[in-house]
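Changelog note: in this version the structure field was regenerated for every chain. One regenerated record is shown below for reference.
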Amino acid sequence: MRCKNCDHSLWNQPVPPEGVGRVCSECGAPYAAADFDYGRGKVRFCCPGCDTGYYGTSERGHLEPAEFSCIGCGAHLNMERCIIRAHNMERENEAMQQRDLPWLEEGSLGWIRRWWRTTSLSLSNAPNIVPLLNRPPKPLLAALFALINTFLASAIASGIYGLFPMLFPGGRFTTVDPYAIGVALVGILASSLAITVFCAIPAICCCWITRKGEPLGFARGYELSAYSTGALLFVIIPCCGFLIGPVVWAAQSIGVFVAYFEGESLGTRILAGVCSAAGFIATVGGGVLFLTYGI
C-alpha cells in the first residue's frame, strides 16, 4: 500500500481528525483506504482507540459491513477511521491485490477475450497498460500477443490493398493464380514475424534508463513495446489505414515508455520519449528493409 504520487509506504498511518481526509505523510497527496484493493484476510483494519483488528472480507478486501461499532471499546468505525496494517509486514506486497494485464490473467477467461481486452487498451490509451505490469516480465507471452496483432494488421492491409484488387480487377470477380496468393500469405507471415522481432529495438534503446534506481531492462522494455501493437489494427481504416496504423502505434508506444517513467524527472521522461521514438523509427526502417530485400 503505497502513495500513488511518491511511492511512500502508507501502512500504519495515523487516523486523521474527524472530517479530515487522509494524506501521505511524505508528499501530502490525498488518498483514501477505499482507493486500494487488498487481499482477503491479509490486512488488519485496527481501531485507533483500542487497537482491536478487523479483517477485510469483501471482493476488494474491504470491511464488511462498511460501518460498525468496535467490540473492544464501542467506538463507531468505518474503513477510513481505522489504522491499516498488513497482516505480515515482512511480506506487505502480498497484502495487496495484484491487477494483471488481461492478456496475463489466469482463469476461465478465454484467450480471445483476454487478447481483445488488452488490445482495446492499446487502441484507446496504451499508457494504461503500465500499472497493470506489476509482476515479473514475461517477454515470450508479450511476443505472442504482438505476433497476433502484427499478423492481423498485415493480413488486413494485404487483403485491402493487395488481394482484393487481384480478386476483383475491373470491379468483377476473377480467379487468381494460387501461386500469387501463396506468395502473399508468406509475405504476411514474414512481415508479422519481422515486426514482432523488431519490437525489441525500442526495448534495447530504453533498457538502460532507470526508474527508482533500477534500469528498465530488456524484458520489461519488450513488454512495453509489444503490448502497444494493438494500435496497428487501425490499418482497417479504408484508403489511409496503412499510414494511420503505424502512426498511432508510434504515438501509443512512445506514450507507454514515457508513462513507465512517470514520477521521475522531466529529463528522464524526455529521454525515454526520445529513445523510444528512435527505436520505433529503427523498427519501421528495419521492417521496410526486410520486406524490400529479405523476401
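Spot check on this record: The chain has a mean pLDDT of 81. Strands lie at 22-23, 30-31, 43-46, 53-55, 67-69, 76-78, 83-86, 210-211, 214-215.
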